[in-house]
Write a structure and sequence with these properties.
Blueprint: E1 2-7, H1 10-20, E2 24-27, E3 33-37, E4 42-46, E5 52-56, H2 68-73, E6 78-82, H3 87-97, E7 100-105, H4 111-128, E8 133-136, H5 144-151, H6 159-194, H7 205-220, E9 226-236, E10 239-245, E11 250-251, H8 255-265, E12 270-283, H9 291-302, H10 306-318, H11 338-344, H12 352-360, H13 395-410, E13 416-427, E14 430-441, E15 465-477, H14 486-495, H15 504-513, E16 517-520, E17 523-526, H16 528-545, H17 547-561, H18 567-588, H19 593-598, E18 607-611, E19 619-624, E20 629-633, E21 641-643, E22 649-656, E23 663-671, E24 674-680, H20 682-687, E25 699-702, E26 705-708
Parallel strand pairs: 1-4, 1-7, 7-8
Antiparallel strand pairs: 2-3, 3-4, 5-6, 9-10, 9-11, 9-15, 10-14, 12-13, 12-15, 13-14, 16-17, 18-19, 19-20, 20-21, 22-23, 23-24, 25-26
Length: 709
């Protein structure tokens, strides 16, 4: 009798197989290969993520002939069915279960992975072999030693984790299916004007859109308030510095007082120093990275989207370069072998001197974060790879690896020492203060410079009097809050309990794909349709939009994970709560009717999500002239342009070219009554008009995404 291991992805299956012994590959389909270890009678079956999904039953397929409210009240309206590509996987699970005595769930070690292994795959195994032994392989990396150690210490299946994922899927199904249908049917007359087929509504994504809309509204309605500053430009031995009047800022109501002060001192040439105090401050090394912290760090440093950051970390994990990137823990276990990892970097061209110094001084204990959730260690580099190593699939992976590695090594470094200087100056009895922070000792900042704040030079003073170069009076206006970028959006979602550490990047991307928000120059804007949707849903469905509802759902899901509540009790409870919210929409939706019929769309020039490849600062806008089509930089100072094909329907994709990071276009041609589709990156195409995506030697377009061949 054999042992069956089920994994979530092919690369994980291959890594586990290679760790166990000599591998024999059995190719079943183009996308499905079974990994066999004949010497030990193991079979490893990889899945492609979920193989089952929730859909409406056949009786509820129609959006117009059924009542969306029934989807909430009647559990029989949704069912779990195989995804389109699932057939071969289900067949193989059943085939290999017949002669197996032991099934090991080796899917990703998190809630989603437990759900895939225990609720998607396992039922097909037990259908054929009801008495098969079930265990779980809980991996924090795909390193050989980790795999072998965990195979020798298998754990009981984490059914409560799988149940948590299952309940989340059921709740999101009846909420999403019912709300999407009802809102879409209500707004149907308007959707054609926006060229949108349906309105995607979900408990997490719609709450996030609501919060982004509130920020947009705050920015638009912001009324600047004038204020005044009196500053002194002073001269010291190493240059000049600015000191601020202690009463800054002066409001409009204080203008008379402010002008009196300025008139009294504006011609003064010397100030008197009354205090020059300095204190030393220790800036401690960072704490280890969990998923949320890593996403914030990567989006901030690299200016990439949260979705790209998460996908890149996952690729590095599957390539055995870093540990599992989906973790809530920022505390290492006491028995974690840091010395083994640090020793790998002794001969690294960039990190050798720093690592050698750490080991020499026995600095082998990392900083401690706030919580050990018992799932996985913090995100950790497992290999010392040079930048040119072929295991990196693209430039983004190199950059992400570099930041994660530097951050990890910084955990063992010495504290940085800062000097904080406070200089108080009297100018004709008017008090001014200058504060500077300078760096005395780099410590850990030497290896992780991206964690370094902006430092200034220390002000050098040799007497009690200081020359004044100029007294400035400036009138300014208060500024609105900034729009959300990926970093601030992730922090907002975590603060409001929207989504999980793993799903947040996907939710942001989903709002983009549904044309509800757009990303321009690293910032997120609500589209015109998104604005319309929020503007009127706020009036009739505010309780659903507020994040409090989804927060309570997440708290209930946590109770399932901790085995405190049953699946059915939580599902029924959320059904009843959402039904109350849904009925409020039904009661008030008539208020939308006149707004829909009278609404006029403002057509705007579409912009690329990637920046101009010439100035690299601003997006490009699409110009459709009579005899040509092209992209031109939205900055009038740049004026650079990219030509576009003259024929065919052009569609701007969210995906970017893996070679140059510019947007990819889909082109649809009608030729001889046949539709022909091809893809191109305008930047590559303008350099060489034979450079279509289909001719690229390194990458290919799959499902609208540029991926490595």
């Amino acid at each position: 009798m054999s042992t069956l291991i089920i994994t979530e992805k092919a690369k994980a299956a291959e890594a586990i197989a290679n760790a166990i012994g000599a591998v024999k590959k059995v190719k079943k389909t183009k996308f499905l290969t079974i990994y066999s270890i004949p010497s030990k009678n193991f079979y490893i079956i990889p899945l492609r993520g979920h193989i089952l999904e929730y859909r409406n039953t056949f009786a509820f397929k129609s959006w117009t002939k059924t009542n969306p409210r029934d989807i909430i009240t009647n559990p029989e309206t949704i069912e779990k069915v195989p995804i389109d590509y699932a057939g071969p996987y289900i067949k193989i699970l059943k085939e290999y279960s017949k002669n197996s005595k032991h099934c090991i769930i080796g899917t990703d070690a998190d809630i989603e992975g437990c759900n895939i292994g225990l609720f998607d795959a396992l039922p097909f195994v037990k259908e054929i072999n009801p008495n098969i032994k079930i265990s779980q392989l809980w991996l924090s990396s795909l390193q050989k030693n980790e795999i072998l150690n965990k195979l020798n210490s298998l754990i009981p299946p984490k059914y409560s984790w799988g149940q948590t994922g299952e309940v989340r899927a059921i709740i999101d199904a009846f909420i999403g299916f019912s709300a999407t249908r009802e809102v879409t049917n209500t707004l149907r007359p308007l959707l054609n004007k926006f060229n949108i087929k349906f309105v995607s509504i979900g408990r997490v994504q719609t709450s996030l859109l609501y919060l982004i809309f509130l920020r947009e509204k705050e920015i638009i309605e912001f009324i600047p308030k004038p204020y005044f500053l009196i500053d002194a430009i002073l001269v010291h031995t190493n240059g000049i510095f600015r000191a601020h009047h202690d009463l800054n800022p002066f409001s409009k109501d204080q203008e008379r007082q402010m002008r009196k002060i300025y008139e009294n001192i504006k011609y003064e040439k010397v100030g008197k120093i009354i205090d020059n105090s300095k204190t030393k401050n220790r800036r401690e090394p960072p704490s280890p990275l969990n998923t949320s912290q890593a996403l914030v760090l990567l989006t901030k440093c690299l200016k990439i989207s949260a979705n790209i950051a998460m996908r890149t970390m996952n690729a590095l994990y599957l390539n055995k370069i870093i540990s599992y990137p989906r973790t809530d823990s920022d505390v290492y276990k006491s028995d974690f072998n840091h010395i083994e990892i640090l020793q790998k970097f002794i001969h690294h061209s960039q990190f050798n001197s720093y690592t050698t110094d750490l080991l020499k001084n026995n600095r082998i204990k990392p900083t401690i974060g706030k919580k050990d959730m018992g799932d996985h260690p913090p995100i950790t580099p497992l290999e010392a790879l040079e930048p040119g190593n072929s295991r990196f699939e693209n430039t983004i992976q190199k950059k992400v690896y570099d930041i994660l590695t530097r951050h990890y090594l910084a955990l063992f470094g010495e504290a940085a020492i800062e000097s904080r200087q406070k200089l108080k100056v009297n100018i004709k009895d008017e008090p001014f203060t200058a504060r500077t922070v300078s760096l005395i000792k780099q410590g850990f900042l030497e290896i992780a410079p991206f964690l370094k704040p902006s430092y200034e030079k220390e002000i050098q003073i040799i007497s009690n009097e200081i020359p004044i170069k100029e007294i400035l009076l400036e009138e300014k206006e208060s500024k609105p809050p900034s729009r959300y970028n990926d970093t601030s959006l992730l922090k907002l979602m975590e603060k409001n309990h929207l989504g999980t550490k793993s799903t947040r990047p996907i939710i942001i991307k989903l709002l983009q794909s549904r044309k509800l928000i757009k990303r321009i120059k690293y910032h997120y804007f609500v589209t015109e349709f998104g604005n319309f949707l929020m503007k009127y849903l706020i009036k009739i469905w505010l309780p659903f939009l507020k994040p409090e509802f989804t927060k309570t759902v997440e708290e209930k899901l946590e109770e399932i994970k901790n085995s405190k509540r049953s699946m059915n009790s939580i599902i029924n409870e959320v059904r009843n709560e959402f039904l109350i919210l849904f009925d409020k929409f039904l009661e008030n939706k008539h208020k939308l009717n006149t707004k829909i019929s009278n609404y006029k769309i403002e057509y705007k020039t579409p912009l690329t999500s990637s920046n101009c490849p010439f100035c690299k600062k601003y997006p490009m806008k699409f110009i459709n002239a009579k005899k040509s089509r092209f992209l031109v930089c939205s900055d009038e100072k740049c004026k650079q342009f990219l030509s576009l094909p003259k024929n065919g329907k052009l569609e701007l994709l969210d995906s970017i070219c893996s070679l140059c990071n510019f947007n990819i276009f889909k082109v649809i041609l009608n030729k001889n009554n046949k539709s022909i589709t091809y893809y191109l990156c305008p930047n590559c195409w303008n350099m060489d008009h034979s450079k279509f995506c289909s001719n690229c030697s390194e990458y290919t377009i799959s499902k609208g995404k540029c991926i490595k061949k």
